[in-house]
Specification:
Elements (H helix, E strand, L loop, with lengths): L27 E7 H6 L9 E5 L10 E2 L10 E7 L5 E5 L2 E5 L4 E7 L1 H4 L3 H19 L3 E10 L10 H15 L10 E7 L4 E8 L4 E3 L24 E7 L2 E9 L2 E2 L2 E2 L5 H20 L12 E6 L5 H12 L4 H5 L1 E4 L9 E10 L5
Parallel strand pairs: 2-3, 8-9, 16-17
Antiparallel strand pairs: 1-4, 2-4, 5-6, 6-7, 7-10, 8-10, 11-12, 12-13, 13-18, 14-15, 16-18
Helix pairs in contact: 3-4, 5-6
Protein name: Enamine deaminase RidA (YjgF/YER057c/UK114 family)
InterPro entries: FkbO_Hyg5-like_N (IPR049368), RutC-like_sf (IPR035959), YjgF/YER057c/UK114 (IPR006175)
Organism: Variovorax guangxiensis
């Protein structure tokens, strides 16, 4: 997502100091494609709005990747976002790289801890500070969805688990920027990768999404202090108006947690089943807030598996619950990743789009 090296009036990408485009159509849509199909969209020299890649090359400017091993048989995939704006601009704000059509923005941040010589809390604070500057400068103030990836998420960081260090810096940046760190926080996930940099991907727009919570779980921002000095900053899901009479449902990373406690310790089958129950609870809560009808079977999901040897077991549970031909089962991307709690073996995050409107 770095700016194109050849910039000019005939190039759709212009640097960060350029005037942002006039807004016309405001719709947003997403499709999950193989890597070859994704790259084929840019063969005419005009890339799509943006994409989030899984196992994709690092050098594709419009497709920041998730640096995690792909466990799916289908190999590298991407969620390609198409925006309705007349012209796409790209640029940088501090350490954040972004692309926008004037209504929607997808950004990426990567920070190498070994090169930066700062602690994880400080790096998370810095990353989110520049994230919020990006939104303000681009005129896309409302976060829709965030993806966080950090190496060694469960490791000790000098007396405090690294995930808890990350939560310290993240929440501090939310509060300093006057952003909703509790009720109204965006949908998000935070996973542990085995290599690479602290990586943050974010989608923003001009209208605030509607946060959705899971009645089976304590809201993450209300977790007791036993989970760290600062609570995680995210809502369980969010509903966003994507234009053309459609709504997007963004579901945060979801795992085998009831109330605020991990359940089914050491049992990946039961943890997967509990995760599916939590996903269904979130979908039911979302459907009550809008006229759209979302379903578990219709989700496009990313399944994060702690132990690669568990992948077939997790897939079998999903196919048993939904049927092997369900879109969620057929289109799922499986990645190797550590979950934010060391006793969790699997986590699923997802999105879906359906016709409908938010209820008043």
């Amino acid at each position: 997502m770095t700016p194109s090296p050849s910039v000019g009036p005939g190039n759709p990408d212009t640097p960060s100091h350029a005037t942002l485009p006039q807004r016309h159509e405001t719709h947003l849509r997403v499709e999950r494609l193989s890597l070859p199909a994704s790259l084929a969209l840019a063969t005419d020299g005009k890339a799509p709005f943006a994409a989030l890649g899984y196992g994709t090359p690092h050098g594709v400017a419009w497709m920041p990747t998730v640096n995690a091993r792909v466990l799916s048989d289908s190999g590298a995939m991407a969620d390609v976002w198409h925006a309705g704006g007349a012209q796409i601009k790209s640029g940088t704000t501090g350490i954040a790289r972004w692309r926008t059509d004037g209504h929607w923005l997808l950004g990426a941040i990567d920070l190498d801890e070994s090169a930066e010589k700062q602690g994880l809390a400080e790096l998370a604070h810095r990353a989110y500070r520049d994230l919020f500057k990006t939104l303000d400068q681009a005129g896309t103030p409302h976060l829709q969805r965030i993806w966080n990836y950090l190496p060694q998420i469960n490791a000790d960081g000098g007396g405090l688990e690294r995930y808890r260090q990350f939560n310290l810096g993240r929440q501090e940046a939310f509060l300093e920027a006057g952003r909703a760190a509790f009720e109204g926080a965006p949908a998000a996930c935070a996973l542990g990768i085995h290599q690479g940099a602290l990586s943050i991907r974010f989608l923003a727009g001009q209208q605030a999404p509607l946060p959705v919570e899971n009645p089976r779980q304590v809201s993450a921002y209300r977790y007791p202090e036993t989970y760290g000095p600062r609570s995680p900053t995210f809502s369980r899901a969010a509903l966003a108006d994507t234009g053309d009479g459609n709504l997007a449902l963004f579901i945060s990373g979801t795992a085998s947690i009831v109330g605020h406690e991990t359940v089914h310790h050491g049992d990946v089958q039961e943890q997967t089943r509990e995760t599916l129950r939590n996903l269904q609870a979130v979908i039911t809560a979302a459907n009550e807030r809008c006229s759209a009808t979302f379903s578990l079977a219709g989700l496009d999901c990313v399944v994060y598996v702690r132990h690669p040897s568990d992948t077939a077991t997790v897939r079998a549970v999903i196919e048993e619950a939904l049927g092997a031909d369900a879109p969620m089962a057929r289109h799922a991307v499986y990645l190797e990743a550590d979950i934010c709690r060391s006793d969790l073996l699997v986590e699923i995050e997802a999105h879906a789009v359906a016709a409908g409107q938010l209820r008043a």
